[in-house]
Structures are given as structure tokens and as C-alpha cells.
Inverse folding.
């Protein structure tokens, strides 16, 4: 066998032995780790207090009351409102935005 093949086989054997020991030992197994709880380790982002701001184009955006973070607010939330922002096609949010000329 070539040297690289022997190394790969040796690495495979060592990893197999380690995984067998880890499965049999409470110190190396999954019992070592804490369960994440009902949120599965992820935490919900904070809720932002927002107010509705109607723009001259008729588009209504949400503006955070405190600071510049929208966090988990509904869409069309922005801390940097542009008064010249409008929908590309009136009433169709999916077509995107443009800046009024």
C-alpha cells in the first residue's frame, strides 16, 4: 500500500475507535451537551415598536419608534424613510420600488 493509503486507513480506524468510545462513555457522548430547550437554541428577535408613516406617493412604510432597528417588524419597515419612494406599479408590491423623479 502507498503511504497516503495507509494514512487514510489509519485515520479511518482511529475515527471509528473514537466514535465507539464516545458512544459508550457518558463523558464523551451526547449527555455532555445541554438540551437547547423549547426554542431549540434560537431566540426570537426583539419586537420593535413601529408607527405607520404615509409617504406622498401613497405608500405606507413602518418607522421604528426608538432607534433604527426594525427587528421582527412587518415588511416595509425602514429607519431611513425616503419621501420620494414609490411602488413601480401602483398597488403591486411584488414589482418593487423606485424613487419618484
Amino acid at each position: 500500500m502507498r503511504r497516503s493509503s495507509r494514512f487514510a486507513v489509519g485515520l479511518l480506524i482511529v475515527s471509528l475507535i473514537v466514535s465507539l468510545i464516545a458512544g459508550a462513555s457518558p463523558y464523551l457522548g451526547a449527555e455532555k451537551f445541554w438540551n437547547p430547550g423549547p426554542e431549540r437554541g434560537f431566540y426570537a428577535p426583539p419586537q420593535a415598536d413601529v408607527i405607520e408613516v404615509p409617504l406622498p406617493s401613497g405608500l405606507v412604510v413602518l418607522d421604528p419608534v426608538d432607534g433604527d432597528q426594525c427587528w421582527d417588524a412587518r415588511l416595509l419597515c425602514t429607519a431611513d424613510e425616503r419621501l420620494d419612494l414609490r411602488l413601480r406599479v401602483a398597488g403591486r408590491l411584488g414589482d418593487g420600488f423606485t424613487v419618484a423623479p
Summary: The chain has two domains: 3-32, 50-99. The chain has a mean pLDDT of 81. Helices lie at 3-24.
